[in-house]
Amino acid sequence: MSVLERIKATRVFKSIYRNPYPNTTKTRLAIMVDSLVLHLHPARIVRRGTWVTYTWGLGGLSAWMFVILTITGVFLMWYYIPNVSDAYWSIRAIESEVVFGQFMRNLHRWAAHAMVILVFLHMCRVFYTGAYKPPREFNWVIGVTLLTVTFLLSFTGYLLPWDQLAYWAITVGTNIGGATPFIGDRINFLLLGGYEIGQPTLIRWYTLHVIFLPLLTIALMSLHFWRVRKDGGISTPVVEDEAEGPGYPPVMEQEG
Amino acid sequence: MDKGMAHERTATRTVTAPRPVQAQAQAAAGRPKLNPDEKVLVWPYLVRIEFIAALLFLLLLSLMAVFIDAPLAPLANPDVTPNPAKAPWYFLGLQELLLHMDKALAGVIVPGAVLLGLAALPYIDVRRKGTGIWFHSKRGVPITLFSFFYTAAWNVSLILIDEFLPVPGEAGAHGIGPIVKYWLSNARDAGWLFGVSDRVINAIAGWIVPTFIMLFIPASLVLILRRRWQADTREAAMGLFTFFVASFLVLTIVGTAFRGPGMRLMWPWEVGAANH
After folding, report:
1. Which end of chain B is more exposed for a tag (fewer CB within 10 A), N or C?
2. Which conformational region is residue B45 in: left (phi greater than 0), alpha (psi within -120 to 50 degrees), or beta?
3. Of B66, B73, B128, the CB nearest to A242
């Protein structure tokens, strides 16, 4: 009996991992049901749903970007100071003094751009494969909301380095919001926390960026994934003369 | 394979065989034909693909993070305005629109309408036919390609016209809006138009004319699709969505790579300081 097998035989190990390594049909079905992360998926899926060229994995990769951004973001939060006089210098310190600081900042930045692109491409994939059609209409709406929130996440993060790039990009962006008919001035005041970009703006956007919008994203993503399953899983071609309206994908004919 | 699975396979076969998806041809190339509707185990057949994709992206982004540093400009200075001051790249399409019409129309109404339009899509195209099939039908690909190039041609032409069409008699002024303003002011000063106010003239030049153009492009596109391809609702929706994607792409690319100091149009190598 090897050391590994002994560990696997312990009560503690068995209490954590309910299944042995999934290498039989039974254990492969079981692990999909018993695992928190894996149970997002059904235990079985139609073969076409596994084709890379059908989904390109864009939705899953968008969520994966969010995970990377959360991890790198928390790392950056340990060193970043959301204060007008310190913000820029704390970024400089992250780049020059913190171990892996530059790497983490870079990864956070590139994953953020990747997420915006991936979410957009995911929307295109869903559209061109007709995966927004009934009964998936509302999940498409949630998806459009998630696209908006993704833009907002990226945009609120853009101000935090407090460099020239950030300051003026936000000036341009909030000016656009300030052009809203009738309530433009109020929207501008709401965005800036005053009449110009300053400490109130920074703390406002920081809070949105690290707490409010991520929590909103998690809530919407959960709803989004849950709806995918509830609306019949991955979209598959439906019978053309099928009755229109709500309903799940093809109902299996019962034998006998 | 246990009995339960075998039963499931025969049961799934009774689902009407869908029209072939493009991917099917690729997947089946050189391999025995697999039944696309057969159920397979998610572990390993799907989980392994997701795992590889996640690792691949982590690796690529990590390599990028090792070799390319995120930009950091000098400390923010409210007194020094960079020329040009640009929003983040995904808003540069909107910033490009701002150059061509009233600020509120370009920056608030258009994106608001686009988001509402996107959300409304599945409530307009309610047929279930075409679910799960790339580009819906044989006509889908040509319709999408045509919509893309038709829209892009309009976008590029309008951007060029606005940049290079001079306003007669006014040095340095250019573009459709200013020209409309010039005509209307002249007509008013000549005693026509019942002496309308500047506000009305500005509304026509900054709101009505651009709105008309922005509605004309998708409307004419749908008309062409209906005439030329007998497009159904889904195919018309494909045209409209492609109109949005193409406009977003063209405007973003122009706003990012072709706008330099003073937001004048120029070649990417003249723009200078890269905008990240």
Report:
1. N
2. alpha
3. B128
- The size of chain B, in residues, is 276
Range name among A110-114, A210-214, B259-263 with the lowest pLDDT average: B259-263
Q: Do the Cβ atoms of A45 and B123 come within 8 Å? A: no
Given this model, what pLDDT does residue A240 score?
57
Q: Say if the Cβ atoms of B15 and A252 lie within 8 Å.
A: yes
Angle between helices B176-189 and B209-229 (to 10 degrees): 120
Does residue B28 have a pLDDT over 80?
no
Query: What would the 3-class secondary structure string for B218-259 be?
Result: HHHHHHHHHHHHCCCHHHHHHHHHHHHHHHHHHHHHHHHHCE
Which of A165, A238, A239 is opposite residue B73, by nearest beta carbon?
A165
- B148-151 — which CB contacts under 8 Å span 24+ positions? B148/B242, B148/B245, B148/B246, B149/B246, B150/B221, B150/B224, B151/B217, B151/B221, B151/B242, B151/B243, B151/B246, B151/B247, B151/B250
Mean pLDDT value of segment B69-90: 92
Q: Is A44 helix (H, G, I), strand (E, B) or coil?
A: strand
Chain B positions touching A49 (Cβ under 8 A) are 46
Specify the amino acid at residue B176. Answer: I
CB contact under 8 A, B121 and A140: yes
Residue A128's pLDDT band, with cuts at 50, 70 and 90, is: very high
The number of C-alpha atoms within 13 Å of B80 and in the hemisphere containing its C-beta is: 9
Q: What is the pTM of this model?
A: 0.87
A&B contacts, CB < 8 Å: 283
> Which residue in the set A44, A91, A163 is minimally distant from B39, CB to CB?
A44
First-residue to last-residue Cα distance in chain B? 54
Selected for mutation to probe chain B from A29, A33, A50, A156 (highest B CB count within 10 Å) is: A50
| pLDDT for the residue A91 | 96
Give the per-residue pLDDT at B150: 97
Query: Contacts of residue B36 in chain A, CB cutoff 8 Å?
Result: 46-48
> CB A141 to CB B122 under 8 A?
yes
Q: Residue B11: is its pLDDT beyond 70?
A: no
- In the predicted model, is pLDDT for residue A249 greater than 80? no
Across the range B71-94, mean pLDDT stands at: 92
Q: Cβ B131–A158 below 8 Å, yes or no?
A: no
pLDDT band at A198 (very low <50, low <70, confident <90, very high): very high
pLDDT band at A118 (very low <50, low <70, confident <90, very high): very high
d(CA B256, CA B187): 38
Closest residue on chain B to A104 (Cα)? B65
Q: Measured between CB atoms, does B29 come within 8 Å of chain A?
A: no
* B100 interaction partners in chain A (CB closer than 8 Å): none
